């Protein structure tokens, strides 16, 4: 996952959508997109005039920043998606959606993808009973994701969960609180992905 330096709210304003980089704060009136959604900078109030290239670039940047991946990593995912059968854009989104840090975030075990990444790096997350310390691991149908059965790990995850709205969990995930576990019931499909992106524009940009 790419390291985001500087003010995270500026990134959301630049892309014009909430990327939920600051967790629960993004659902409150304190969110920068609620108070001042215009593009940052002294000319942000002016209506931007993007060229065709600029529109495609912004869409690609939006996807990268939404899932928190670096440019080199993104190119690797695009190459992998283009080698698979079917629609390349849909394949790309599904690959990104299956990342472990994204799955932990969507499953409401963490308030943001950044927080999910930190949980994974610190060894608080298990997949099928085994420690998973790499946020980019792809989950598979039938996988069971759980907090490490230690008091510290359980306390951190439960503290996160107490502050999260658990209503919008994707249909391909199932959260159980007793015992606390997140099950991948099936692989995500394009209809399951709520990310507000135009994947065809991303494919056109990356295929130049």
- SSE class: alpha+beta
Task: Give the CATH level 1 class of the largest domain.
Answer: Mainly Alpha
CATH architecture descriptor of the largest domain = Orthogonal Bundle
Instruction: Please report which band the strand proportion falls in: under 5%, 5-15%, 15-25%, 25-35%, 35-45% or over 45%.
Output: 5-15%
Strand segment count: 5
CATH fourth-tier homologous superfamily of the largest domain: Ribosomal protein S4/S9, N-terminal domain
Overall geometric form: globular
Q: How does the major sheet shape up? A: 5 strands, antiparallel
Helix content: 40-55%
Distance between the ends: 25 Å
What would the CATH topology of the largest domain be? Ribosomal Protein S4 Delta 41, Chain A, domain 1
Major beta sheet, strand line-up: 2-1-3-5-4
What are the segments in which pLDDT stays under 50 over at least 5 consecutive residues? none
Q: Report the C-alpha radius of gyration, rounded.
A: 18 Å
Q: With helices defined by DSSP (H or I, 4 residues minimum), what is the helix count? A: 9
Helix-strand topology string: HHHHHHHEEEHEEH
How many domains? The number is 2
On the 0-100 scale, what is the average pLDDT?
Answer: 84
């Amino acid at each position: 996952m790419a390291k985001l330096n500087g003010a995270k709210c500026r990134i959301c304003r630049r892309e014009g959508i909430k990327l939920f980089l600051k967790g629960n704060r993004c659902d409150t009136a304190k969110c920068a997109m609620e108070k001042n959604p215009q593009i940052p900078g002294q000319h942000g109030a002016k209506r931007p005039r993007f060229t065709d290239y600029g529109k495609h670039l912004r869409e690609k940047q939006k996807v990268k920043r939404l899932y928190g991946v670096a440019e080199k990593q993104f190119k690797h995912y695009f190459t992998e998606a283009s080698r698979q059968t079917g629609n390349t854009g849909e394949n790309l989104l599904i690959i990104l959606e299956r990342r472990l840090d994204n799955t932990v975030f969507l499953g409401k075990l963490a308030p943001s993808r950044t927080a999910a990444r930190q949980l994974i790096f610190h060894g608080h997350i298990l997949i099928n009973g085994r420690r998973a310390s790499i946020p980019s691991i792809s989950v598979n149908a039938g996988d069971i994701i759980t907090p490490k059965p230690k008091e510290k790990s359980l306390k951190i995850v439960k503290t996160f969960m107490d502050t999260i709205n658990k209503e919008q969990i994707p249909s391909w995930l199932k959260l159980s609180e007793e015992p606390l576990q997140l099950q991948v019931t099936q692989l995500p499909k394009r209809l399951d992905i709520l990310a507000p992106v135009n994947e065809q524009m991303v494919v056109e940009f990356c295929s130049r």
